[in-house]
Amino acid sequence: MCDCVECEQMMQPYLDRTLNEGERREAEEHLAECEWCSNRYRFETELRQYVRVAYSEAMPPALKQKLAALRTPLF
């Protein structure tokens, strides 16, 4: 069974589904036992969902204009 530090290091690869079978099983066992890491996993999952939704929504033209007006020239 992994500890919280290991679980934290495995979190993104776990969410990306890039862990091997043994690592995945280790992460899942830890998440089932550790409330802290389980809450962290839920947060990361919800954050990814939020980003997916935000990315898929078009930016209103008025907001684009406001952001463009805030740009400062590099030179």
Give a description of the structure:
Helix content is 76%, strand content 0%. It has 75 residues and is mostly helical. The protein has one domain. The longest helix is centred in the middle third of the chain and has 22 residues, at 35-56. The radius of gyration is 19 Å and the shape is elongated. The model has no long low-confidence stretch (mean pLDDT 91).
Largest sheet: none
Give the helix tally: 4
Q: Tell me how many strands there are.
A: 0
Average pLDDT, to the nearest integer? 91
The helix-and-strand class reads mainly alpha
Q: What is the terminal separation in angstroms?
A: 55 Å
Radius of gyration: 19 Å
Shape: elongated
Poorly predicted residue ranges: none
Please give the domain count. Answer: 1
